[in-house]
Design brief:
This protein is mainly α and 250 residues long. It contains 8 helices and no strands. The chain is globular.
Length: 250
């Protein structure tokens, strides 16, 4: 959090006083923070013996790392340095939420200790990170933050939505097969499964209308923001408030 906080300040300074040195320092600090997160994930993976992307601490940390990784990719590909502060802000918010969780490494139950479950969790939170980035790009578009560094914001939005949708589809397929092996049914009326299905249909509809003339501009950006709000409800509210099969307090 400290490294990302420093990167956020540097990226804001690079916007206020555009200097290549400040921009490079911000990108370097964000990259260092991402490397620290990946290193921590590797250490915890080695200690646990399984990919530790379960529970509030681990999942929100993974989400933060993915958001920063996508933002750095956009900086490299599109020169979108002005987008970095928003991504770092979202990553810091995720890490602040992660600090409320339990970082202890426990053992997995036999039903969870399968490659299908690991694939399900990794693709779901990777998709959530991409949907979060799409929402940030949508917010930039709504607020009129454009320029040479964000001239490719529509392509950034499309890439985030498409890749996020593909990963979330894989998440749903892996989750369904895992549920069948664990519980004998591909789909149940459990709260998390129901809202995950609603989320998948929402982004299916978003991608369906994205090129229609009436949905260009602010409607598409608003849909991206609303979609991430639905993600947060599906992930956080259902896991923390309601009784579901995906507890986040472990």
């Amino acid at each position: 959090m400290g490294i990302y906080g420093a990167a956020l300040l540097l990226s804001l300074a690079a916007i206020a006083a555009p200097r290549p040195a400040l921009r490079r320092a911000a990108v370097a600090a964000a990259s260092l923070g991402l490397a620290a997160q990946v290193g921590l994930l590797a250490v915890r993976w080695n200690a646990a013996g399984f990919l530790p992307v379960t529970g509030l601490y681990s999942t929100l940390g993974f989400l933060a790392a993915w958001v920063v990784a996508i933002a750095l990719y956009f900086v490299w590909r599109y020169g979108a340095a002005s987008f970095l502060p928003a991504a770092l802000g979202l990553a810091l918010a995720a890490l602040a939420g992660a600090s409320k969780g339990n970082m202890a490494l426990g053992s997995l139950t036999p039903a969870l200790d399968t490659p299908l479950f690991a694939l399900h969790v990794v693709t779901s939170f990777s998709a959530y990170g991409l949907f979060g980035v799409a929402a940030l790009v949508g917010a930039y578009r709504l607020l009129g933050f454009s320029g040479s560094s964000l001239g490719m914001e529509r392509r950034m939005l499309d890439e985030s939505l498409y890749l996020g949708y593909i990963l979330f589809t894989w998440c749903m397929l892996a989750g369904s097969l895992w549920a069948y092996l664990a519980w004998g049914s591909y789909w149940t009326w459990r709260m998390k499964g129901l809202w995950s299905t609603i989320l998948w249909f929402y982004y299916s509809g978003l991608l369906h209308v994205r090129n229609r003339p009436g949905w260009q501009g602010w409607p598409l950006s608003a849909l991206a923001l609303l979609g991430f709000a639905l993600v947060l409800f599906t992930f956080l509210a259902l896991g923390l408030v309601f009784d579901s099969s995906h507890p986040l307090n472990s």
